[in-house]
Amino acid sequence: MLELNDALNLEESILDRIMISITEVVNNGIIHGNKADPNKLVHLSCTCYDDRIDFTVRDEGVGFFPDNLPDPLAESNLLKEGGRGVLIIRSMMDVVEFRQGETGMEVFLSIRRMPSFP
């Protein structure tokens, strides 16, 4: 990712959001999607545009339904160690889409290259 920043000269806040989100998605792909199977891979691709950067992360697992995940903000879940990944990713990126593919779960992420201000 740091090579990406060298090439694109991103603002630090944008790079931080990318690093946190990609780390979370890749870790989820390894742990939850691929069930830590060393024979399965997590695939990452990146496409850069003038106004945004798109990422696709695909694991080789069976997939899941993100809308069926427990609410991490529910009182019963607040002290749990995990379960906040999707919430974090959605808060960091401008677009997050989960797609069940033929060979695993695919997560599409997109972020504007310049921060937006209200």
Task: Provide a descriptive summary of the structure in words.
- The protein is 31% helix and 25% strand.
- It is of the alpha+beta class.
- It has one domain: Histidine kinase-like ATPase, C-terminal domain (Heat Shock Protein 90), CATH 3.30.565.10.
- Strands 1-2-4-3 form a four-stranded antiparallel β-sheet, with helices on one face.
- A hairpin with a 2-residue loop joins β3 and β4 (104-112).
- α2 (12-33) packs antiparallel against α3.
- The longest helix is centred in the first third of the chain and has 22 residues, at 12-33.
- It is globular, with a radius of gyration of 15 Å.
- The relative contact order is 0.22.
- The model has no long low-confidence stretch (mean pLDDT 85).
List keywords for this structure.
118 residues, alpha+beta, Heat Shock Protein 90, 4-stranded antiparallel sheet, 3 helices, globular
Measured by DSSP, the beta-strand proportion falls in 15-25%
One letter per element, helices H and strands E, the order comes to HHEEHEE
Number of contiguous helices: 3
Number of strands: 4
Quick rundown:
This protein has helices spanning 2-8, 12-33, 85-92; strands at residues 43-48, 52-58, 95-101, 104-112.
Write the layout of secondary structure elements.
Layout: H1 2-8, H2 12-33, E1 43-48, E2 52-58, H3 85-92, E3 95-101, E4 104-112
Antiparallel strand pairs: 1-2, 2-4, 3-4
Helix pairs in contact: 2-3
